[in-house]
Design a protein that fits this description.
The chain has two helices and 28 strands. By secondary structure, it is mainly beta.
Length: about 375
């Protein structure tokens, strides 16, 4: 054994001497080529779907998942803290997250901030301190909203008294708190960047006008637009121009026009026939309506009754957005949230029970293109 080891050692020395001689004689290169380092975007998908995940079993560790909206490929993730709400910038280059952190994880000193992230590299850019009144709620659209010119980011507050925090993104600072007693959610008025609407518990809607410093320069209260006791509205609505379209708990489509001085009714249409109403067909979920390419999609379930408004979809019903007439139905995929791609050719549906995203091509006859597992408790869809 010792002789064998010595022979191997002698052989290695011989090889080393031969290499030294070769390098010294110039018959081989003495230096490896310099490696060229490059940076590539973390996210390359053209159509992206952003899915907040409240991580409800360990709620201090929320996530924002980024999915390729065409293929279902998983692109990346951003930590969103304690019940973080997410919103894309107008050009899609940045992601805004209003969130909360405790310096001992689930306890300790509380810090509330708006984080700004690069949507392509997924690098953190900067943060803006905000009020600790921020609503620590499940992910819903319009609890964090952006004005149409991209200047104002408006954060829903609850203590449980309701107010909003106004953030000036141009100045990168929180500039005002505006009381919104009895009202919830923020609906930007697309044609008027300094205005936003809100739905109120008495069936009215308010419009607030912002001054240049972000404070409330004016406020109006509408007439009663819906019955909150007999036919409450889901808080999520989808706009065409300055008019937002909401679905009600019993299956009506209620449109509210925020373009004028006061919010006003802009139409009410039943989404169900008399027979379907008797069978209890109703909208349900956390984000039950989507609008794209002239089509309105509503997540529906049968056997609905008081308290069934979060029931997953048995079917997704399709309406012509202009005429409000139903033009088709498709499988519900157990959806609790639905949304469309920016061009309206894809419908996205979240099955919260299975924690999955179903991507359906709806450009012609609906056809499922991909199903992908996403996080633990996905509940909202935000598409670029």
């Amino acid at each position: 054994m010792r002789f064998h080891d010595r022979a191997i050692g002698a052989g290695c020395v011989g090889v080393a001497l031969a290499l030294v001689a070769a390098f010294g004689s110039g018959t081989a290169s003495a230096q490896l080529p310099v490696e060229q380092l490059t940076n590539k975007p973390a996210v390359t998908a053209k159509n992206r779907v952003y899915i907040p995940d409240i991580a409800i079993m360990h709620i201090a560790d929320g996530k924002l998942h980024v999915i390729d909206g065409d293929t279902g490929n998983y692109e990346g993730v951003i930590g969103s803290g304690f019940t973080g709400q997410a919103k894309l910038s107008k050009d899609g280059s940045e992601v805004y997250i209003s969130t909360t952190y405790y310096d001992r994880g689930q306890r300790g000193n509380r810090v509330d901030i708006v984080e700004v992230w690069d949507s392509t590299t997924l690098h953190f850019k900067y943060e803006i301190p905000i009020s600790d009144k921020r609503a620590m709620a499940l992910n819903y659209k319009y609890l964090l909203s952006l004005s149409s010119d991209g200047r104002w980011l408006i954060v829903q507050n609850a203590t449980p008294a309701t107010s909003v925090t106004v953030v000036d993104l141009a100045k990168k600072t929180s500039v005002a708190e505006i009381a919104m007693p009895g009202c919830w959610a923020v609906y930007p008025v697309p044609s008027q960047p300094n205005k936003f609407g809100s739905l109120c518990g008495d069936g009215t809607a308010q419009i607030v006008t912002l001054a240049d410093d972000g404070s409330a320069a004016g406020r109006t209260v509408s007439d009663v637009l819906f019955d909150p006791e007999k036919d409450a509205l889901f808080i999520q609505g989808e706009p065409t121009g300055d008019t937002y379209h909401f679905v009600s708990f019993t299956g009506n489509l209620v449109s509210i026009d925020f373009s004028g001085d006061k919010a006003k009714a802009a139409g009410k249409t039943s989404l169900v026939t008399a027979d379907e109403r008797k069978k209890g067909w109703r909208p349900g979920g956390y984000q039950p309506v989507a609008l794209g390419a002239g089509k309105l999609y509503v997540a529906m379930h049968a056997g609905g009754s008081e308290g069934s408004h979060k029931t997953p979809a048995k079917e997704i019903w399709i309406y012509d957005a202009a005429s409000k007439k139903r033009i088709g139905k498709m499988p519900g995929h157990g959806a609790t949230a639905i949304g469309t791609s920016s061009d309206g050719t894809k419908l996205y549906a979240i099955d919260a029970e299975k924690a999955s995203l179903v991507i359906t091509d709806v450009s012609k006859k609906p056809k499922v293109k991909a199903t992908v597992q996403v996080g633990e408790f996905p509940s909202q869809i935000e598409a670029n």
